[in-house]
UniProtKB/TrEMBL annotation:
Residues 35-127 form the HTH LytTR-type domain. Transmembrane segments: none annotated. This is LytTR family transcriptional regulator. Gene3D superfamilies: LytTr DNA-binding domain. InterPro entries: LytR-like (IPR046947), LytTR_DNA-bd_dom (IPR007492). PROSITE patterns: HTH_LYTTR (PS50930). GO terms for molecular function: DNA binding; phosphorelay response regulator activity.
Length: 146
């Protein structure tokens, strides 16, 4: 499971703990991030911001696409061109049928679910063994109430 991304200073290692570790550069230092600590990733231009469960943020100068490839085999899903979420931190899913959706995470953040990602996301979420079984999923035919 050891993966190296050439020249990109990003390495995913298995560990003795249940969660693999992601090593990357942050402020010219190598930092270790357990995948279980990542709630979601946000893309901002050519930077990716990691939001962790301890409330800290890590900014990396790599694009979201690189991390999508690295995290693809784990419990992460790209729900929008600007967001990758950890499926284990989802509290609620609200979907307007065939239009769009909103995912609410355990830290209270609401993330937009793109129309094209609805079906693959629901399939992946259903297959995720570690996801929270108490997640509320609402599918409506009308826009969300303001």
């Amino acid at each position: 499971m050891k993966r190296r991304m050439n020249k990109n200073c990003i390495t995913l290692y298995p560990t003795e703990s249940p969660s693999p570790v992601l090593w990357m550069l942050h402020k010219n230092k190598r930092v270790r991030v357990f995948l279980e600590d990542i709630i979601y990733l946000e893309s901002q231009a050519n930077y990716t911001i990691f939001y962790l469960k301890n409330g800290k943020n890590i900014i990396n100068s790599r694009t979201m696409g690189l991390f999508e490839n690295v995290l693809g085999q784990e419990s992460f899903f790209r729900v929008h061109r600007s967001f990758i979420v950890n499926l284990n931190y989802i509290d609620q899913i609200s979907i307007i049928k065939h239009t769009s959706g909103i995912i609410e995470l355990s830290n209270g953040k609401q993330i937009f679910l793109s129309r094209r990602k609805i079906k693959p996301f629901l399939e992946e979420f259903a297959n995720c063994e570690e996801s929270n079984p108490q997640v509320s999923i609402q599918i409506t035919n009308h826009p969300f109430a303001a």
